[in-house]
Every structure is written in structure tokens, then in C-alpha cells.
Amino acid sequence: MPEQAKAEEARIKALLEGWADAVRRHDLPAILAHHERDMVMFDLPPPLQCRGIEAYEQTWDLLFRYHKPGTAFDFRELAVTAGADVAFAVAIMWCGSDSSSNPIDKDGFLFRLTVGLRKVDGDWRIAHEHHSLPATD
Q1: In a domain, 137, yes or no
Q2: Model pTM?
Q3: How many CB atoms lie within 10 A of CB 87?
Q4: Number of domains forming the structure of the chain
Q5: Average pLDDT for the chain
Q6: Residue 28 and residue 23: Cα distance in Å, rounded?
Q7: Pair 82, 100: CB distance under 8 Å
Q8: N or C: which end of the chain has fewer CB within 10 A?
């Protein structure tokens, strides 16, 4: 892998780690800081999709009702693939009372995250965010 691609992937990982840290702190301005104004998100709870930064901002109220500041919102796995001006990341994350590795812990859950990014004026911006859980019977 070329050094430039490694450097871009490291920048994106740092951006996403910063986003997760902002979620743990309930720092809404920092959560929104690297998102495009016209971003699209597919989330765990309804609605089916949200479009635009204002709609995305409103989705955090629901999580913050159940997720206390300082509570786990942690990457378990994170892989990034970066091109010159677009990139994507796939991750397994833990959201819960601690960083328990037990996926059936009643105080938390594992979920999947996919993020699409584009480079704008030299900075990576999140254009798409998709959170999901495996389907159950």
C-alpha cells in the first residue's frame, strides 16, 4: 500500500475515533463537526433515513436519553479504505455501560457501522453513515 494511502487511512481513523469520543462526551458540535451538510444516515431506530445535518443532529436526542456521558461507544474493529477523494470505513462498535465483550449483555450491544467520506478542500468529510444490527428471527 502506498504511503499516501496509509496516511489518509490514519487521518480517517483519527477522525472517526474523535467522533466516537465526542459521542461518549455528548459533545454535539464535535459529533457534527466533520459531516457534510447534505449527509445521509441510515440508523437503527426509525426513520428509514435522515437527510441533511439538521435531521442528523436531531437523531442524537434519542441516543442521549439512554446513553449516559462517559458510557462506552467504542470501536471493536475498524477498517478504512481511502482513495484520492473518496473513502469508506467499516466497523464493529460497542455501545453500552462498559466495553463488555459479551454481545448479549443487557447493558449494551454490538452494532455495525459503515461510513462514506469524501475529501473537500483537503479535509475528510462524512457524507454517509449507516448503523445496523443483524436481523433476527
Answers
A1: no
A2: 0.90
A3: 23
A4: 1
A5: 91
A6: 7
A7: no
A8: C
